[in-house]
Design goal:
The protein has 92 residues and is mainly alpha-helical. It has a domain at 33-90. Helices cover 80% and strands 0% of the residues. It contains three helices and no strands. Helix 1 runs antiparallel to helix 2 (49-68), helix 1 packs parallel to helix 3 (74-91) and helix 2 packs antiparallel against helix 3. The longest helix has 36 residues, at 10-45. It is elongated and about 60 Å long. The N and C termini lie far apart (53 Å). The relative contact order is 0.12. One of its GO terms (molecular function) is small ribosomal subunit rRNA binding. InterPro entries: Ribosomal_bS20, Ribosomal_bS20_sf. Pfam families: Ribosomal_S20p. Binds directly to 16S ribosomal RNA.
């Protein structure tokens, strides 16, 4: 809240609060995506095809949701999904 002291204009104070809220949301979403990615990689390491496929499905939907919310750029999301898919397909 100390940052609000720097801003004198009401709209600037609100902008600071809104940006903090969005940053927190984006951070939690990015963290969740990393967790889903690690689950896919762990399943691939363990050579468990079913677990890898199901983890990939969950991870790709979550990455798509993050993309639609504006957390990731569409190309970034596509790249993440592509790399995970290639990992899982390499098992077969």
């Amino acid at each position: 809240m100390e940052v609000l002291k720097l801003a004198n204009i009401k709209s600037a104070k609100k902008r600071i609060l809104v940006n903090e809220t969005k940053a927190e949301r984006n951070k939690s979403i990015r963290s969740a995506i990393k967790t889903y990615t690690k689950k896919v990689e762990a399943a691939v390491e363990a050579n468990d095809k079913e677990a890898a496929a199901s983890a990939l499905k969950v991870a790709s939907t979550e990455i798509d949701k993050a993309c639609s919310k504006g957390v990731f750029h569409k190309n970034n999301a596509a790249r993440k999904i592509s790399r995970l898919t290639n990992l899982v397909n390499a098992m077969n």
